[in-house]
Design a protein that fits this description.
The complex is a heterodimer. Chain A is of the alpha/beta class. Chain A has a single domain, classed as TIM Barrel, CATH 3.20.20. Chain A is built from 15 helices and eight strands. Chain A is globular, with a radius of gyration of 19 Å. Chain B is of the alpha/beta class. Chain B has one domain: TIM Barrel. Helix content of chain B is 51%, strand content 10%. In chain B, strands 1-2-3-4-5-6-7-8 form an eight-stranded parallel β-sheet. The longest helix of chain B has 21 residues. The chains are: A alpha/beta, B alpha/beta.
C-alpha cells in the first residue's frame, strides 16, 4: 500500500515589503476594487485579518506545524494576490525578483515541504518574460502565478505576448489567481461587498479564463497550461453553453478546437475554496480527474476542512490520489 | 401518455417595439442591447424577427412540430427598459394588451408574462395589478438592469412589494451589462449569451439576496433562466464566504444566501440543454425548483425537447420539470382530461 500524499497547490505567503507596499498604495489613496479588502486586512482589528496576516508572513513555523497536524506534505507557494501587480512598474519588477529569490531559497532548503510559483510584473511584459525564464531555469521554481488583471488589462491583450512566449519556451504553467474585478466592470459589485470571494473573484477570473480561451493563444501556443482555482472559476458549469454560443456566434476569432477541448487539453483546475462534492464529481466527469488538483488556499481558508473534504468525498481512490498529489507532481514537476 | 411540455422563456416582439428600438438606435444611443437590435431590425436576422413577431398560427405550428404544448410568452429583451419612463410604461401596456389578445385566441397554447417599466415604479405597480386582475397574466418579466440600476435598489421596492402581494413571479431575463460594467467583455465579444448575459444576471440575483429584499418580501418569487445564471454552481462558496464575512444580509436573521436561493428562486433550463448541468442543479435545488424552457426563437426547440426527453431521469421529476412546476408557479391550468 502506498502512503497517501497531500500536495496543496494554491497556498499563499507574503513578504513584509509586499505588505508595506500595499499599505503605501492604500495610504496614497489609490482606490480599486481590491482596496477595501486590503484596507481591512492591513488596518482592521478583527481576528480574521490578524490571523491571516500573521500566517501569510510566516513561512516555516506555524505553517509547517499546521501542515504536519493535518498530514499535508507540501505547499505549492505563491506570493499572495494581487502580488506586485498594483505597484509602479519598476518597483514591481524589482520586488518580483526579490520575492522569487526568497521563495527559491526556501524551496531549495525544504524541497520536501515546499514548491513555488514565481510572481511576475505584467506591467513590464518583457521583464516578466525574463523573470519567467530565470524562475524556471536559475531558480528552479515550478510555474508562475498571475493575479488576474493588471491595471485593468487582461493577459489576452497583445502587449502580454512575451509572457506567453516565455511560459511556452520554459514550460511554465500559469496559475491565474483571482483578484477583485477590474474597474471596467466593478461598479455593480461594490454596493454589497460582492467584489470579493463571495462573487466577484469568480466573475473576474472566470472572465479572464474565457478571454484566453477565445483569444487564439491556445492555437499559437498549443502546449500552454493554464491553471484556474475554485474549480475552474465557473467555466466548467458553462462549457456546454460556451461551446453552443461559440458555434452559433459571429464576430469572434475562428479557433481550431472547441472551447471544451481547449479546456480539457490546456487547463487544469484546483479545488481551492470549493469543497462541494457535486461540483467535484461534475468536473471529474467532464474534464477527467487528471485535470484537477487539490488546494487549500492557506491561510485564507482552513486546512482541516480542505483535508476532511478531500479525504471523505465519494470518488474512486485512484481519482482521490490523482487529485491529492499525482497531478500536482506532473503539472509542477515536483520530485 | 406523453408528458406535457410547457416552455417558459419564450420571446415575442411587437412591431411597435422594434420601431422604437430603431428610432433609439438612429438617435446615437450607445446601449449595447440597442446596438444589437439595430443590426437585427436592419435585416441581419430576418427569420428570427419574423418568428418573434408571430404570436399566432405560425408559432403554434412550430410548437406542434416539436410537441410543445404551451409557450409562456414574454416581450423580448431588453423589453421596454431602454425607454424613458413614461414611454416605457405606455409601451408595456400596449404590449401586454397584444399579448393578452394572443392568449385569448389560443388559450390552451399560450400563457404570458407581463412586461413592466421598473423605472416608472407607480406605473409598474398599476400594470402589475392590471396584468393580474384584468389580463390574467402569469407573472412578470424584467430584463436585468434598468439604466444600470438593479431591482434591489429602494426605488424599485414598490414593484417588488406589488409582485409579492399580487403573487406574480418575476422572471429576471438577461440583457447586456450596463455601460459601467461592460468594458472587459467587449474585446472578445463576450457581452452576450456566451458569457456576459450570465455575468450580468447572476450578479443581479446576488444583489437581490445580499440586499435583504427576500427578508423584506419573503413571498417574492424570482425566476432565473440558464439553470440559475451560475448561482447553483457557486452555492457552497457563497455560503462559506458569507459565514466568514462581517457584512450581514439586512433583516436576514440566521438565513444563509443559499436559503434564499432555495426559498425564493426558481431556475429554468433555457439555453442549457446539458444533462450534466441539470443533474448538478437537481442535486443542489431539488426537482421542484427547476422548469423547462427553450428560449424560442433564439434557440432550437428540437434540441431543448430531445435533451430532456432522452435524459435518464425519474419520470416524476421529468414531468415536474417539463410542466408540473410551471403549472404551479405560473397558474397554468392542467389540460382537460381527454373525453
Amino acid at each position: 500500500m502506498t502512503t497517501r500524499r497531500r500536495i496543496a497547490t494554491e497556498e499563499a505567503f507574503a513578504t513584509p515589503e509586499q505588505m508595506q507596499a500595499i499599505e503605501r498604495v492604500i495610504a496614497g489613496g489609490t482606490v480599486d476594487a481590491d482596496s477595501r479588502f486590503w484596507t481591512m486586512m492591513a488596518r482592521a482589528p478583527n481576528p480574521f485579518a490578524q490571523r491571516v496576516m500573521r500566517q501569510l508572513l510566516d513561512l516555516e513555523e506555524e505553517r509547517v506545524a499546521i501542515m504536519d497536524a493535518h498530514g499535508v506534505d507540501m505547499h505549492v507557494l505563491a506570493l499572495t494576490s494581487p502580488g506586485v501587480q498594483t505597484l509602479p512598474s519598476d518597483e514591481a519588477v524589482a520586488m518580483a525578483v526579490r520575492s522569487n529569490d526568497l521563495l527559491a531559497e526556501l524551496v531549495r532548503r525544504r524541497p520536501d515541504r515546499f514548491a513555488g510559483l514565481a510572481t511576475i510584473a505584467p506591467q513590464d511584459p518583457e521583464a516578466a518574460g525574463r523573470e519567467i525564464e530565470r524562475a524556471m531555469t536559475t531558480l528552479g521554481l515550478n510555474g508562475v502565478m498571475i493575479n488576474s488583471h493588471t491595471a485593468d488589462e487582461y493577459l489576452d491583450e497583445d502587449k502580454f505576448l512575451p509572457i506567453f512566449e516565455a511560459a511556452h519556451a520554459f514550460d511554465a504553467p500559469i496559475y491565474i489567481h483571482p483578484r477583485a474585478p477590474s474597474s471596467g466592470m466593478a461598479a455593480p459589485f461594490l454596493k454589497y461587498g460582492l467584489e470579493t470571494a463571495i462573487w466577484g473573484y469568480g466573475a473576474e477570473t472566470g472572465l479572464h479564463g474565457v478571454r484566453i480561451l477565445m483569444s487564439g493563444l491556445l492555437d499559437r501556443f498549443a502546449n500552454l497550461r493554464i491553471i484556474l482555482g475554485h474549480m475552474g472559476e465557473g467555466i466548467p458549469f458553462w462549457l456546454w453553453r460556451i461551446d453552443y454560443m461559440h458555434r452559433h456566434g459571429s464576430g469572434r476569432l475562428p479557433l481550431q478546437r472547441t472551447i471544451t477541448e481547449y479546456f480539457r487539453d490546456n487547463f487544469v483546475i484546483t479545488t481551492s475554496g470549493m469543497q462541494g462534492p457535486e461540483a467535484l464529481r461534475f468536473c471529474i466527469d467532464l474534464l477527467g480527474a487528471k485535470n484537477i488538483m487539490w488546494a487549500i488556499d492557506y491561510p485564507y481558508q482552513e486546512t482541516p476542512g480542505a483535508v476532511e473534504f478531500m479525504d471523505q468525498v465519494a470518488i474512486s481512490e485512484d481519482d482521490r490520489d490523482a487529485i491529492y498529489w499525482r497531478n500536482a507532481k506532473r503539472v509542477f514537476r515536483v520530485e | 401518455m406523453r408528458i406535457r411540455r410547457i416552455a417558459v422563456e419564450e420571446a415575442f416582439a411587437t412591431a411597435e417595439q422594434l420601431d422604437a428600438y430603431r428610432t433609439l438606435a438612429e438617435s446615437g444611443w450607445r446601449d449595447p442591447d440597442v446596438l444589437f437590435w439595430k443590426g437585427v431590425v436592419g435585416g441581419a436576422f430576418d427569420d428570427i424577427v419574423a418568428d418573434l413577431l408571430d404570436i399566432g398560427v405560425g408559432r403554434i405550428a412550430a410548437m406542434d412540430r416539436h410537441g410543445i404544448d404551451v409557450q409562456l410568452l414574454s416581450l423580448t429583451s431588453p423589453g421596454v427598459q431602454v425607454f424613458e419612463a413614461r414611454k416605457a410604461s405606455d409601451l408595456a401596456r400596449s404590449s401586454n394588451d397584444l399579448l393578452n389578445e394572443a392568449i385569448a385566441r389560443h388559450p390552451s397554447r399560450f400563457a404570458g408574462l407581463a412586461v413592466i417599466a421598473p423605472h416608472d415604479a407607480p406605473g409598474a405597480v398599476r400594470e402589475i395589478e392590471r396584468a393580474r386582475d384584468v389580463l390574467g397574466l402569469s407573472g412578470l418579466i424584467v430584463n436585468s438592469h434598468t439604466d444600470g440600476c438593479y431591482l434591489d435598489e429602494e426605488a424599485f421596492w414598490p414593484v417588488l412589494e406589488a409582485a409579492e402581494a399580487m403573487d406574480m413571479p418575476i422572471y429576471i431575463h438577461p440583457r447586456s451589462l450596463p455601460e459601467a460594467a461592460a468594458a472587459p467583455y467587449r474585446s472578445r465579444s463576450l457581452e452576450g449569451g456566451i458569457w456576459g448575459y450570465a455575468a450580468e444576471t447572476g450578479l443581479h440575483a446576488m444583489r437581490l439576496i445580499m440586499s435583504g429584499v427576500f427578508a423584506r418580501f419573503p413571498r417574492l418569487r424570482i425566476v432565473l433562466g440558464h439553470l440559475g445564471e451560475g448561482l447553483p454552481w457557486w452555492l457552497y462558496r457563497i455560503d462559506y464566504m458569507y459565514k466568514l464575512q462581517s457584512r450581514r444580509i439586512p433583516r436576514g436573521t440566521n438565513q444563509l444566501p443559499s436559503d434564499y436561493v432555495r426559498q425564493n428562486i426558481w431556475v429554468t433550463t433555457s439555453g442549457m440543454n446539458d444533462a450534466d448541468a441539470l443533474r448538478f442543479c437537481l442535486a443542489k435545488l431539488g426537482p421542484d425548483r427547476i422548469l423547462w424552457a427553450v428560449d424560442y426563437p433564439y434557440q432550437e426547440p428540437g434540441e431543448a425537447v430531445s435533451f430532456l426527453t432522452e435524459m435518464d431521469l425519474d419520470p416524476v421529476d421529468k414531468a415536474a420539470i417539463f410542466a408540473g412546476n410551471a403549472e404551479r408557479l405560473f397558474r397554468i391550468p392542467s389540460p382537460e382530461p381527454a373525453a
